[in-house]
Automatic annotation (TrEMBL):
Source organism per UniProt: Paracoccus haematequi
Superkingdom, natural source: Bacteria
Record keyword Zinc present: no
Alphabetized GO MF terms: ATP binding; single-stranded DNA binding
Taxonomic lineage from the root: Bacteria, Pseudomonadati, Pseudomonadota, Alphaproteobacteria, Rhodobacterales
The protein's name: DNA replication and repair protein RecF
Annotated localization: Cytoplasm
């Protein structure tokens, strides 16, 4: 499947945008604040979740309008629409039928790399866990449902803990649910890391070893009964804390690479970026039989000309559609005619786009 058309209405700095897409990479360039990343964010809303900025829906509506926003897309012969009218949460329609957001994950696999992820390896574990779950979701679309089931049971257990309800009978069913869903969550995450490691090509970056770290919560255990048993054993401590302190929701992602098995967090800033880029490309490669859209925000600016050329070669070899941003067209020169160029400008606060010849 291919994302063949994108249409935006009142989305961030865009009043309207109509964009045809094909298999060629799309290099989007323009000044700071012109609205390039807003296009990538709109594409990321074609995946379940809150998109690459994790923004609340009202923030995405063009300011000064009370209209809410709407994104329409054509994915082969499917019509996809997602919209958030004022004061309402986001809705999703596929072929005019309302569907759960999770249905989006079965249509396109959307991967992204944005500057906010530059410090991923030294950020708190939540950021890596979100990244891990996005990667996992791209490979296993049922991961969203499993995560939701786990989350619901955990919230309910946390509510009991917060209300200091001590009766074990109230907890057992929830802990069994957390055990079942948590084990599936962990198995998915482990399988995703194995798939990504196998798909690394050693291009610009030595292959990394990725590990699911247990964290404080022993969050690498794929056995339902032992997760539930540990939750039961930890109940007195959890009652003291008023929340669940153990389980897959405490997992962390570790990465080591190179001859000295260097932890990613100790690598240089450039190495950390290269590692992430290499993992995103591996993620796309691991999905080679799926329709992948790769969003790379301001990746080119950090690379020297040779690395940029090598990256573009690898992007062109991927079985994926790619959208990239950068401030100037020269950043994309080494694509030559292989990529389309879209110039983005902004007048009176409203973004506009024009395709230019390569
Ligand atoms: N809800 C909104 N309504 C109108 N404009 C918005 C909204 N949200 C963000 N913007 C504007 O969009 C601009 C940012 O757009 P975007 O992040 O796409 O820029 P960019 O071209 O990627 O810039 P840079 O090169 O600096 O990353 C900002 O000027 C911001 O004020």
């Amino acid at each position: 499947m291919t994302l063949t058309h994108l249409s935006l209405a009142q989305f961030r700095s865009w009043s309207r945008l109509d964009l045809d897409l094909d298999h060629r990479p799309l290099a989007i360039f323009g000044s700071n604040g012109s609205g390039k990343t807003n296009i990538l964010e709109a594409v990321s809303m074609l995946a379940p979740g809150r998109g690459l900025r994790a923004a609340p829906a009202p923030d995405q509506a063009r300011q000064g309008r009370d209209a809410g926003w709407r994104i329409r897309a054509a994915v082969d012969d499917h019509a996809v629409e997602t919209a958030a009218p004022p004061g309402q949460s986001r809705s999703v329609l596929i072929d005019d039928k309302p569907v759960a957001q999770t249905a989006l994950g079965r249509l396109l696999r959307i991967l992204w790399l944005v500057p906010a992820m530059d410090r991923l390896w030294s950020d708190p574990p939540e950021a890596r866990r979100r990244f891990l779950d996005r990667v996992t979701l791209s490979l296993f679309p049922d991961h969203a449902d499993v995560a939701l089931t786990y989350d619901r049971a955990m919230r309910e257990r946390n509510r009991l803990l917060k209300d200091q309800i001590g009766d074990p009978g109230w907890y057992r069913a929830l802990e069994a649910q957390m055990g079942d869903a948590g084990a599936a969550l962990t198995r998915n995450r482990q399988a995703a890391l194995t798939a990504i490691m196998a798909a690394q090509d050693g291009g610009d970056f030595p292959a990394a070893t990725l590990t699911l770290l247990p964290g404080e919560g022993q969050a690498d255990d794929p056995d339902p009964d032992s997760i539930a048993a540990r939750l039961a054993a930890m109940r007195p401590r959890d009652l003291g804390a008023g929340r669940s302190l153990t389980g897959p929701h405490r997992a962390d992602l570790g990465a080591h690479w190179g001859p000295q098995d260097m932890p990613a967090a100790l690598s240089s800033t450039g190495e950390q970026k290269a590692l992430l880029l290499s993992l995103i490309l591996a993620n796309a490669r691991a999905l080679s039989d799926q329709p992948v859209v790769l969003l790379l925000d301001e990746v080119a600016a950090h690379l020297d000309a040779d690395r940029r050329a090598a990256l573009y070669d690898r992007i062109c070899a991927l079985p994926a559609q790619s959208l990239l941003t950068g401030t100037g067209p020269e950043l994309f020169d080494s694509f030559g005619p292989r990529a389309r160029r879209l110039a983005v400008t902004r007048d009176d606060g409203v973004s506009a786009a024009a395709e230019i010849a390569a």
